[in-house]
From TrEMBL:
It comes from Phocaeicola plebeius (strain DSM 17135 / JCM 12973 / CCUG 54634 / M2). Residues 1-19 form the signal peptide. Keywords: Signal. This is Capsule assembly Wzi family protein.
Length: 495
C-alpha cells in the first residue's frame, strides 16, 4: 500500500506541475458519520452498500477526508487520481486507506490502478435504491486491483448506434491485512494473501433516439484464487494447512476456468481451481416521454449447472423493476426487487465431488458464497454481493462463512426531492432465511430492515450537506434494532 501511495502521489505531483488551470481540477471532500442505537447489530441499511464505511456495531463513527485530481489532455486523453484516508470507532479497521487510485483514460478506454469505489458492473442498478448486486458491488471496502475497462457503452461501428458494448477485466488482491486471523477463534480456519479476478461483457441492442425500447444482456464472472489457508491454534499461533498456486498458470486459470493440477486439493482437480462465481444479466428499458421503465434480471451461478440453467432459468437470482418519474417534487424514482437464492441446484448431499461419476448428472448443494478453501466470498467481514445475505461480520462464532445463504426477499426503494434543498430516501426490505443445506436453521427466520433518510443541502452553505436517518429493523435472524445516523459532508474546489 505504501508503494501505491508513493506512485500515485508522484503522478499527482508531476501532473500538477504541468497543469493548465482550465483543463485541471483538484477537489477535496470531508465526511463525518456517526450512528447510535440499540440492538445486537446496527440496522442493516446503516451498514449495507456503504463501501465498507458502515459498521455492524450499533454505536460507531468514522471520519473520512480525501482529494481528487483530474486533468484533460488533447486527443481524448485524461487522468484522474484520488486518495481517501479514514479512521473510525468500532470499525473493521481503526485507520485505513479507503481509496487510492489512478485512472488513465483514452476516449472510452480506461486503465484503473488501485482501490476505488465501484458501484457494480456490468448491469446498471440504482445504487441509492437497489438492494445491491449479487456478485460484487458497493457492500465492501474497495478491493485493490488493476482494471482495464470500457465503463460506458461504446457503439459498434457500422451498426448505426443500434449495437453497443462495455466490459472489463481485472486482477487484484484481498488486502485484509491480517483481519481474518484476528477475527476467527481458535480451531477455525482462515486465509491470507488471496488473489482476485473479475471480468464482464455487456451488449446493448437498440437506439432510444429512433425506437423507445432497449435490450441489454451480458455476463459477469469473478474468482478468488491463490493465497494460503491457516488453522488458528489454541495458543493464538497459526499453522499453514494449504498453499494454493500463484504462478502465471493460476492467473490464466482464473481468467479461463479450468481444473486444478496435482498441487491443489482433490476438489479443485475435479472441479474448477479457485472459487469461481458469476451472474447472467438482462435488462429491458422503455422510454416514454419523461418516463423510464426498466426491468432487469441478475441470474446468479457458482458452477456450470446454474451457469447454463440446467436447473431452471429463473430459480435463483434477482428480478427488479425501476420507474423513473417525470420531474416532480415528491417522487423521483422507485425500485422493487425480488431475490431468491433458495434453490442452489437442489439439496442433494453426498460424499464426493462433482465429476467423479461422469455417467451421472450430479451437481447440487451449490452453497452460495461459501467455499471449502476460501471460507466465503467476503472482504473484511462484509459480503461482496447483496447485503440481504449478511456476511461473516454477523457471525457470533466468528467463522468466515455465510450462516444463511438460502434466502427469499422483497425490497422497495423510493426517493424524491421535495425542494432544491431537501431530499429523502426510503428503503424497506423483508427477508426469509433457511440457513444452508449443510447447516439449516432451527426454523425459518424472518427479518425486516428499513431506512428513512432526509438530506439537507443548503444554498447558503455551498459545498455542505447533512443527512439524518432512522433505521428500524425487526426480526428473529439479525434481531431487533433501532438507531439514528447523522452524516455531514463538505466538498470544495482547491484548483
Amino acid at each position: 500500500m505504501k508503494l501505491k501511495a508513493i506512485l500515485l502521489f508522484s503522478i499527482l505531483s508531476s501532473s500538477l506541475i504541468q497543469a493548465q488551470t482550465e483543463n485541471t481540477s483538484l477537489t477535496y471532500h470531508v465526511e463525518l458519520g456517526a450512528t447510535a442505537g440499540g440492538g445486537t447489530y446496527a440496522p442493516l441499511w446503516f451498514t449495507g452498500n456503504r463501501y465498507g464505511l458502515g459498521s455492524t456495531n450499533p454505536n460507531s463513527g468514522y471520519l473520512l477526508a480525501g482529494v481528487t485530481y483530474g486533468k484533460q489532455f488533447q486527443h481524448g486523453w485524461r487522468i484522474e487520481a484520488g486518495l481517501d484516508m479514514a479512521g473510525g470507532i468500532h470499525q473493521a479497521q481503526d485507520v485505513f486507506i479507503h481509496q487510492i487510485y489512478g485512472d488513465f483514460s483514452w476516449k472510452m478506454l480506461t486503465l484503473s490502478i488501485g482501490s476505488k469505489e465501484r458501484p457494480g458492473f456490468p448491469l446498471t442498478k440504482n445504487t441509492a435504491l437497489s438492494s445491491g448486486m449479487l456478485v460484487e458491488g458497493p457492500n465492501t471496502q474497495p478491493v485493490p486491483q488493476i482494471r482495464g475497462e470500457i465503463k460506458e457503452y461504446l457503439n459498434v461501428p457500422g451498426t448505426k448506434e443500434w449495437l453497443a458494448f462495455k466490459g472489463h477485466i481485472a486482477y487484484g488482491s484481498f488486502a485484509e491485512n491480517g483481519w481474518q486471523k484476528k477475527y476467527v477463534q481458535p480451531g477455525q480456519y482462515f486465509v491470507k494473501d488471496v488473489l482476485y479476478h473479475s471480468k464482464s461483457l455487456m451488449l446493448r441492442l437498440g437506439n432510444k433516439d429512433k425506437f423507445p425500447l432497449e435490450f441489454e444482456v451480458g455476463i459477469l464472472m469473478a474468482t478468488q484464487f491463490g493465497g494460503d489457508k491457516y488453522l488458528k491454534l489454541e495458543d493464538g499461533s497459526t499453522e499453514k494447512v494449504l498453499d494454493m498456486p500463484e504462478n502465471l498458470k493460476a492467473y490464466w486459470k482464473a481468467f479461463f476456468p479450468q481444473t486444478g493440477e496435482s498441487n491443489t486439493p482433490e476438489g479443485e482437480q475435479v472441479n474448477i481451481e479457485g472459487n469461481m462465481l458469476g451472474s447472467w444479466n438482462f435488462a429491458l428499458n422503455y422510454y416514454l416521454s419523461e418516463w423510464k421503465l426498466r426491468a432487469y434480471l441478475e441470474h446468479y451461478f457458482e458452477d456450470h449447472s446454474q451457469m447454463f440453467w440446467q436447473y431452471g432459468r429463473w430459480k435463483d437470482g434477482q428480478i427488479g423493476v425501476e420507474i423513473t418519474f417525470p420531474k416532480n417534487r415528491w417522487i423521483s424514482s422507485a425500485v422493487w426487487e425480488g431475490l431468491n437464492t433458495k434453490g442452489q441446484s437442489g439439496s442433494l448431499l453426498y460424499d464426493g465431488f462433482w465429476g467423479q461419476f461422469p455417467e451421472y448428472q450430479i451437481s447440487a448443494n451449490d452453497n452460495y458464497y461459501n467455499h471449502y478453501i476460501y471460507g466465503a466470498w467476503q472482504y473484511l467481514g462484509m459480503g461482496m454481493g447483496n447485503p440481504l445475505l449478511p456476511g461473516p461480520a454477523y457471525n457470533k462464532d466468528c467463522s468466515i462463512s455465510f450462516r444463511s445463504n438460502r434466502v427469499r426477499a422483497h425490497h422497495l426503494g423510493i426517493n424524491g426531492q421535495p425542494s432544491s434543498e431537501w431530499g429523502y430516501r426510503m428503503l424497506i426490505s423483508f427477508a426469509r432465511h433457511w440457513g444452508t443445506y449443510n447447516t439449516p436453521l432451527d426454523q425459518q427466520r424472518k427479518q425486516f430492515s428499513s431506512l428513512y433518510e432526509a438530506t439537507y443541502t443548503p444554498k447558503w452553505a455551498k459545498g455542505w450537506s447533512a443527512s439524518a436517518a432512522l433505521g428500524l429493523d425487526r426480526g428473529n435472524y439479525l434481531g431487533n434494532a433501532t438507531g439514528g445516523m447523522l452524516t455531514i459532508k463538505r466538498t470544495g474546489i482547491i484548483l
